[in-house]
Amino acid sequence: MDDQRRRKLTFFTIGLIFLLSGIEYAVILPTIWRYLQTLDAPPYFLGLGLSAFSFSGLLTGPLFGLISDKTRTTKKIILFANCFEIVGNFMYFMGYSKWLLLSSRLVAGIGTGAGSSIFSFLTRNTVPEDRSTVFAAVMACRQAGLLIGPAFNIFLRLCDFQLGPFIVNKFTAPGIFMCGLWLLLQLVVLLMYWDFPEPASRGSREDKQQQEDGEDEEDENDENDEVRPLVHPHELTGSYGTVSIPPPRIPTVANGNLPRRSPSPPEQSHSSPFKRFSARREFLREEVVVLLTAQFITLFNQTALETMVTPLTQKFFNFGELENSIMYCVCGVEVIAGFVFVRWLSRRVAERVVLAIGLILCNISCVWCLIFLANPQGGFPWQLAEFIIGVFLQVLGLPFVAVAQVSLFSKITAEKTQGFSQGVRRSIGGLATILGPLWAGGLTSNLYVMLGVMMALLALLTIMMAFSYERLVERPIVEHADDSEE
After folding, report:
1. Which one of 306, 316, 335, 382 is at 20 to 30 Å from 404 when CA atoms are compared?
2. Cβ partners under 8 Å of residue 202, min gap 6
3. Judging by DSSP bridges, how do beta strands 166-168 and 161-163 pair with one another?
4. Distance in angstroms (rounded) separating the CA atoms of residues 471 and 193
5. pLDDT per residue as tens digits for the range 259-282
6. Could you write out the DSSP letters of every residue in 181-203?
7. Is 290 exposed, middle or buried (0-12, 13-18, 19+ CB in 10 A)?
8. In what helix (H) or strand (E) does residue 67 lie, and over which residues does it extend?
């Protein structure tokens, strides 16, 4: 099999991983509350179960990212993480007690930590100008899973039979169904995923990249992990694959890496990427703080609104399970369309422009909800129209913010420690997905307070971005080297 085909299959497998994560969320979330009720669980167990999944992912994300940075491998991490998904979903299927169900979500959440390693892999194997399009495609796969998931529930809710000592019904079926899908994914990863580049190929490529004008020996030792991009500039032609071309004399490399005069000694090429790493210098820079704040606030507001929507539709419109499922499907279609548009737009404008557009849409949505939904006036058709517009605006802004902040974050943090950095970013997002539902769940009867705080957080983020707008650009690798010498 040629190298080009392997790269296409690898990217396809990454898409499948995110697709399954979306399906799992959409299949389990609609039934978990009723499932807990059959096990005599108190109401607070719903919040515990949802938070446990995010909590374990919050802890394991940086750990898996750290391992991928040190080993420069992702395949083994994915296979290892998927084992937790398999075990966790089987525990969910067993469902003997509320504590086993809670533990199942805690175990399954460990598998989500591999996402930091995957984003690190994509960062190392894409050039900056194409990174937004690649991230948008990957994120759209998860949204597609959220859209497909409810369709699986149509037949899962009909299950009613015995499987050995276990009962398969509409509550336990999602667990064994997802267990089977994650098992199939293990086989797909084994057969269709490759780590690029392998250690031997890195050395051979570096041997061909000798330059007349050199850099000092210290910079040469620090930056020795050049990789072959998974996606070359301007080569995304409708598919997610790449076209193999001979490397130019002065190659375009991710994160602004400059070509080196001569290869580093073999023993140095495998030196720890954290040899001169400083968390303070890496994460306490103005632009990094802004993007991490954007990650937290947007996910906090998103999960808070998701928690608020169902009680509101029941209170004002008497929506049932069918109406809510249709609403979520329509939102899923809108989000996927948004990611497709962002993928197109990111080729034409800078990521900070995309981020600014997303924040404007989110602010408009929050103001709209604060005015029209906190204290709805008028009859049924007007209330429904106001609700639809508010949800539409909120969902519309998500792809802009999500893609822009992930892509920018990968460009302003060091490539060599990208796995750990992405793990930190995802952990902050995990913290937001824990706190968002807790905040909204306790204030569904006081929407002015809930939406007011969300509006204040968005205003703070907008001000932070306005002051840091000029710094939200790709950071040359030379600057990293200068920082490390301070």
Report:
1. 306
2. 225, 226, 227, 269
3. antiparallel
4. 36
5. 443 444 444 444 566 666 666 777
6. HHHHHHHHHHHH---SS-HHHHH
7. buried
8. helix 44-71
